[in-house]
Amino acid sequence: MLDAFGFDCHTASGEAEAELAYLNKIHVIDAVITNDGDSLVWGAKIVICSFSAIINGHAVYNGAQKHDTNHAYVFRANKILEHAKIGLDQDGFLLIALFCGDYSTSYKPGMGIKIATGLAQAGFGTSLGNAIHMYSPMQLESFLPGWRK
Question: Rounded to whole angstroms, how far apart are CA atoms 55 and 72?
Answer without folding.
Answer: 9
